[in-house]
Write a structure and sequence with these properties.
The chain has twelve helices and three strands. It is mainly alpha-helical. It folds into three domains: 82 residues; 97 residues, Orthogonal Bundle (DNA polymerase, domain 1); 80 residues, hpI Integrase, Chain A (Orthogonal Bundle). It has a three-stranded antiparallel beta sheet with strand order 1-2-3, with no helix packed on it. A hairpin with a 4-residue loop joins strand 1 and strand 2. Helix 5 packs antiparallel against helix 6. The longest helix has 20 residues. The relative contact order is 0.07.
Length: 295
């Protein structure tokens, strides 16, 4: 179902490959939940059960933007399971691009080439169309009606104009233009391969937060907790349970007295995420911190 829904987003609604992949990641998280909880058949109720597990009792209005996107993603799959369709509009099919004139005809041939010869997906092709259309409009504005009148200086000037429009991703325009101009050279429509003269456009990515902490960073975090107040003592217990025993946040918040077995120095719980029993050693520093907080 996930595979069919992904194909639907790409072929019917013309979603980008990046967007489709984001939905697939969300659906795979749902699949893990379904399997872990012994749900044999996915339906809307199972989707709502999963969302309740993720967001508990928070209302939709209280969710962040990314959480709302996640919520919609799960509901989209529920719609697809019930109707075989996903409600949404194709961003590119709403306004078809008309490639007029001699250059437009070449662009149409190029689109057919990447579709039938290169076998690019419809989703990717629909990202070529608007960028080619921008270049075609620029040619019209500058009274360029023949592909042979297009030279490197003209192309670089167009890229410069696009670069001043922050809402348009320049790297995508450059990539499409490079492919198109290489095609025109290979088809002997122009005598010089302009594509090799187009510089690569570098995007600056912000550094990502680390997915894990080093042992030194964990110890520094633990030592930074001010334990002079009840709140500080509580926070210290929470961090130790996560750092020393690897307990999930959902299991930490649901920890009860009956889960603490002092006689055997163990913590015994039923995991919220998997529903399976888990027995962990009640380490001295963890146990002492719990006693300190309770006192």
């Amino acid at each position: 179902m996930i595979s069919n829904a992904s194909d639907y987003l790409e072929s019917k609604l013309s979603y980008s490959l990046m967007t489709v992949e984001e939905h697939r990641k969300n659906w795979k998280r749902l699949r893990t939940f379904v399997v872990s909880n012994g749900i044999r058949r996915f339906n809307r109720d199972a989707g709502k059960q999963f969302l309740h597990y993720e967001f508990e009792c928070r209302r939709f209005e209280e969710l962040s933007h990314s959480e709302r996107q996640f919520y919609r993603s799960i509901m989209m799959l529920a719609d697809f399971q019930e109707t075989g369709q996903i409600q949404g509009r194709s961003r590119f099919h709403q306004r078809p691009f008309i490639f007029r004139g001699t250059i437009g005809d070449i662009m149409t041939g190029f689109l057919d080439y990447i579709r039938f010869e290169k076998r690019l997906s419809l989703g990717r092709i629909h990202h070529y169309e608007p960028n080619l259309y921008r270049f075609l409009n620029y040619c019209d504005e500058k009274d360029i009606s023949s592909i042979q009148d297009v030279n490197l200086a003209f192309v670089l000037h167009f890229i410069g104009e696009i670069g001043r429009k922050k809402e348009i991703p320049v790297y995508a325009v450059v990539s499409v233009l490079r492919s198109f101009l290489k095609y025109t050279f290979e088809q002997k429509l122009i005598s010089i391969d302009i594509s090799v003269g187009i510089p690569k456009y570098k995007t600056v990515n912000q550094p990502q937060l680390p997915s894990t902490y080093s042992t030194e960073e964990i110890e520094k975090l633990i030592c930074s907790v001010d334990r002079s107040s009840p709140v500080g003592k509580r926070n210290y217990v929470i961090i130790l349970l996560a750092a020393r025993l690897g307990l999930r946040a959902s299991d930490v918040t649901r920890l009860k007295f009956e889960g603490l077995h002092w006689s055997t120095s163990t913590i015994e719980i039923i995991q919220v995420k998997t529903g399976k029993e888990l027995v962990l050693p009640l380490l001295p520093d963890v146990g002492n911190s719990i006693i300190d907080y309770l006192r």
